[in-house]
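Format notes (please read before filing issues)

Several people have asked whether sequences and structure tokens are stored in separate files. They are not. Every record keeps both together, in the order shown below: the sequence lines, then the token lines. Line labels are part of the format and must not be stripped during preprocessing.
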Amino acid sequence: MQKSAKTLALFVAVAICLPLAFLPVVGLSVSQQEMQSLYVQRALVTLGYLEDDGGTEFSGFEIEDAIMWFQEEYGLPVTGIVDDDTLTWLFEAEEEFLEEHGAVWIPTKGGKKYHSSSGCSSMIDPRYVSTPEAEELGFTPCKKCY
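Then the structure lines:
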């Protein structure tokens, strides 16, 4: 009976720990990696490196090609991997693009006003979109911001 308990404990330990060994060790949890991946994809779509055909998923090859294209255009090492420098440049490029094209902040948890600042009206998890997109979604300007 004691041998069975040890075997079971070993099995449980392996079943729990083995999958963890295959997670990338970059200091992010799985949910943080997923969020970062979605944010990277959104930035690549915004900047025109990925074509959003209305689907919700891109293949790994499409994303890697888009990242390499971005890295090449921004003079970064072309690896297809989103390292810290690529991530920084990608988000700065997206923010510049949105600012140039009249971007605003919209709330994701209630409210129908768009804002010039993400901190206005104590928005939780606001999203940065183009002004035409915000208006198309039914948002109108905040009186404090505009």
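For reference, the curators noted about this record: The CA atoms of residues 27 and 57 lie 24 Å apart. Residues 30-100 form a domain with the Muramoyl-pentapeptide Carboxypeptidase; domain 1 fold (CATH 1.10.101).
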